[in-house]
Target: MARVEL domain-containing protein
Amino acid sequence: MHTEIPSPPHWLSSLRSFLRLLIIVLSGSVTGMLVHTMQIYRGNISLDLRKGELPMTWPARTNLAPTLVLFFIAAANFIASVAILSLSFKRSFRRPIRSRDAYRIIAGSFGVILWATALVVFTLLDKASKASLGHYACSNRNIMSNGRFQYRAVCSEQGMAFYLAAGAASAEIVTLLTLAISAIQAHKNKPNLPIINFNEKLPIGPKEECP
Model:
């Protein structure tokens, strides 16, 4: 006998789709912003030097590690979120199978850990190194140089990328909570199948004689 497993509330699925779309926008914004930051860093050679201005310089060994860590994790999360959102439109992917719910929760937890790691590493490395891209740009944004606008752009974009990444991590946490709620509700609403005891003896009626 085919037993249909009740589906989770529709509002949870809609909320997850909205949150996944929000994560795509935020992680894509972080990725694009950091790409633009790297373009500014690489493209300061052609700036004109005016009278009274100091030339724009970067440290000989600029520490790009904080920027690169946040960039790679944001890009990976963007690709993964696009793939998850695309698969969510398939009925087989949305069906509340217990093993699949566990897989979603594990994948969501891994995403939260990656975002948390990126934010912590970005903060610690940026503060520890005076030669990091964001730290150096923010320290020199008010210096009268031909690249002061570039310094200010890098400083603001690094800070904005951090806050957008924090927003994406928060959305990932809320998505993980909705997955946990759906898994719990699916487990509670699972129909109880009748238990057949094969050791129980069936009553035997009187034998009918053949005519």
Summary: The chain has a mean pLDDT of 77.
